[in-house]
Design a protein that fits this description.
Shape: globular
CATH class of the largest domain: Alpha Beta
Helix content: 25-40%
Largest sheet: 7 strands, parallel
Number of strands: 13
Oligomer: single chain
Structural class: alpha/beta
Distance between the termini: 39 Å
């Protein structure tokens, strides 16, 4: 195993079989890098990575929380670590609350220790959920959030916030070059159909002619970032030395009411589905929109794919899947 052949890096991605991890893996391999992917497949899927060319990709089915992970021989000489391992959709993290806490605390500490040992740079993927149900709008990185430790979403929000604290400690105490991405809703044509996230739900329902289920009155807003934009943001975050020790929002600042998204999906998919309304889940944030001034300034990053363009691609892919 050579690291740094022709300036190309040996890169570790945890959560490589997940939605975002598999897209990031494919993009970095396209750029010519050598990738080690780790996933315990608790919410990731082997099918997400089955088409990846093996000559530059090693997959290790393992849990980043295990004590042995740091001494795996494959991880010596790793130059970059993207720590994405974690359930990320409410359906998964509410089923795996203890594992969600552990992977973001013990798993994050293990990855920071590895970075400290190998001199690697690290990106930790946190979440817009760190802002809770925000009282300021849009959300900027200095906002401390309005969060609840006592509810069904807390296992995720608080796990990610604790992971950020670990990054802060390793950056200030050991000078590990770590950067934190607070990721806002990301979607793509490749998102698993049943993962419970809003766009995959709407598109699947619309294409099957099932009712499109909107929670609350649909006035709550979200900002949706197409996955290729999110991946570009993460890669820039890794590249930029000026991002070390920074928390940076990665998301699309175009904000839409959920009802608008439901109607747009229905129109674009020429669906006969009815839109139905259901009670709002507990602690569901009413507003979500990133302020991305910091990402623009430090990373030179702005997302480029509009919701309509991203939805068209998603609907087309899902249609093929359902008919295939």
């Amino acid at each position: 195993m050579h690291s740094g052949v022709h300036g190309l890096q040996k890169i570790l991605i945890t959560g490589a079989a997940g939605f975002l991890g598999s897209h990031l893996t494919k993009e970095l391999i396209r750029e010519g890098h050598y990738i080690i992917g780790i996933d315990n497949l608790s919410s990731g899927r082997a099918s997400n990575i089955k088409d990846i060319p093996q000559e530059r990709f090693i997959f290790i089915e393992a849990d980043v929380c295990s004590g042995e992970i740091i001494s795996l021989p494959e991880l010596s000489g790793v130059k970059e670590i993207y720590h994405l391992a974690s359930p990320a959709s409410p359906k998964f993290y509410q089923n795996l609350p203890l594992e969600t806490l552990e992977v973001n605390i013990t798993g994050t500490k293990n990855m920071l220790e590895l970075a400290r040992k190998t001199g690697a740079k690290m990106v930790y993927t946190s979440t817009s959920e760190a802002y809770g149900d925000p009282l300021i709008h849009p959300q900027e990185e200095s906002y401390r959030g309005n969060v609840n430790t006592w509810g069904p979403r807390a296992c995720y929000d608080e796990a990610k916030r604790a992971g950020e604290v670990l990054c802060y400690i390793y950056y200030t105490k050991y000078q590990v070059p770590v950067k934190v991405a607070r990721i806002f809703n990301t979607y793509s044509a490749g998102l698993a159909n049943d993962d419970g996230r809003v766009i995959s739900n709407f598109v699947t329902q619309a294409l099957k002619g099932d009712d499109i289920t909107v929670y609350g009155d649909g006035s709550q807003t979200r900002s949706f970032c197409y996955v290729s934009d999110t991946v570009k943001g993460l890669i820039l975050l890794m590249e930029k030395e000026t991002a070390n020790g920074e928390i940076i929002n990665i998301g699309n600042p175009d904000e839409y009411p959920i009802i608008h998204v439901a109607k747009l999906v229905k129109t674009l998919s020429r669906s006969t589905s009815k839109i139905t309304f259901h009670p709002l889940p507990e602690d569901d944030p009413k507003l979500r929109r990133p302020n991305i001034a910091k990402a623009q300034r430090i990373l030179g990053w702005t997302p480029s794919i509009t919701l309509e363009k991203g939805l068209k691609a998603t609907i087309e892919q899902y249609g093929k899947k359902l008919n295939g």
